[in-house]
Design goal:
By secondary structure, the chain is an alpha/beta fold. Helix content is about 35%, strand content about 20%. It contains eight helices and eleven strands. A seven-stranded mixed β-sheet has the order 5-2-1-6-7-11-10, with helices on both faces. The protein has a two-stranded antiparallel ribbon with strand order 3-4. A two-stranded parallel sheet has the order 8-9. α1 packs parallel to α5.
């Protein structure tokens, strides 16, 4: 069991997801679905999920779909789970002093501070990950190291835990990280049931590499080589 996460009590926990234009939809929807599915599996409301934006207005995601915010940043005081998602929109926000002040203000009042994908860079830009173990999406490796050298980057891991700060490598690994939080809160049996409900693996471990060798093999331009790679993966002992 992960230290500092145990909370197997029947109480309602608040989940706040930070929204901004250009947010990656899956970084929002993946963790949100894990917590919503947990409510269904338990048969009672364990997590109350809300999304906020800077002014309380709608948020345009990277897909072109729009999310309706529940609250503005100014009204956020505390949450049991605070989620900073990533997406292409972060590139315009890494040097945003208003956003950095917001993250610094709320961080001490959050029970768990979760950064998904390139959202880790937003959290790092506020200085909250200095000296802490963290990860981010593999496409952001060079930027992470260059811009935030004080962070203890573990960029080959799909998610990390360091005290109350949690990071995932992005997209579907946000689901893995959220499942690990549910397991800590409600036990492995519940987390397994949620994974089955969502038809996902339960669960990839945080130390697992985010660099998939089978996917790299499938990306080869040669169909003959691709077929060979697939055969080897399916039956590595075959002659």
């Amino acid at each position: 069991m992960i230290a500092n996460l145990q909370n197997q009590t029947k109480r309602l926990q608040s989940v706040f997801i930070m929204g901004f234009n250009g947010v990656l939809l899956m970084d929002v929807a993946g963790p949100a679905q894990v917590f919503a599915s947990t409510n269904k599996v338990l048969g009672w409301k364990a997590y109350d999920i809300a999304i906020g934006s800077e002014d309380g207005g709608d948020v345009a995601t990277d897909t072109g779909l729009t999310l309706c915010a529940d609250v503005s940043f100014a009204t956020v005081a505390r949450a049991d789970v605070f989620i900073v998602p990533g997406g292409p929109g972060i590139d315009q926000r890494l040097d945003d002093p208003l956003l950095q002040r917001f993250l610094k203000r709320v961080a001490p009042h959050m029970e768990r501070f979760v950064s998904i994908c390139s959202g880790s860079l937003l959290t790092a830009s506020a200085g909250l990950l200095n000296g802490r173990k963290a990860t981010t999406h593999w496409e952001r490796v060079n930027l992470a190291r260059e811009r935030f050298p004080s962070v203890d980057w573990h960029l080959d891991e799909i998610f990390t835990h360091d005290g109350k700060f949690h990071c995932s490598a992005g997209v579907t690994t946000g689901i893995d990280l959220a499942l690990s939080l549910v397991e800590a809160d409600h036990g492995r049996r519940v987390a397994l049931s949620v994974a089955r409900e969502m038809v996902v693996f339960m669960q990839r471990q945080g130390g697992q590499s985010q660099y998939s060798e089978p996917l790299k093999a499938q990306a080869t331009t040669s169909k003959r080589l691709c077929d060979l790679y697939c055969q080897i993966e399916q039956d590595p002992t075959a002659l």
